[in-house]
Amino acid sequence: MPRLDSITLRIRTGQRGTHETPNYTINGFTLPFDSTEGSTGPGGSFEATGHPQSFPHSLTLVGPLEGAWDIEGAEIDFFVSGEEPYTVRLGSVTLDDHADLRLWYPRPAVLIDV
To answer: What are the φ/ψ torsions at residue 18 (nearest 5 degrees)?
Structure first.
């Protein structure tokens, strides 16, 4: 398993936003992002960077404690030790106090035409 140095997360919020600054969990430990910018309110754009410096057996974005948060889409840039950075794009989802968003996606395999 590769060591995850940092992630940058970009989110587009839909109709229902949240007033809470989101956190993430890595391997069951909840952490604040190291830097955040923008808004998680309705129609807002939010960007956050975290530096977990760990091996991500699990990595999730924590849903709000109150209400629901409609995410129209998200992009995650992964910076893994010894590898080139890569980006994963996610579709729409709604988070709440019972639903978190999985963030860890290993680098896709290289496809070769034969």
So the answer is: -140, 150
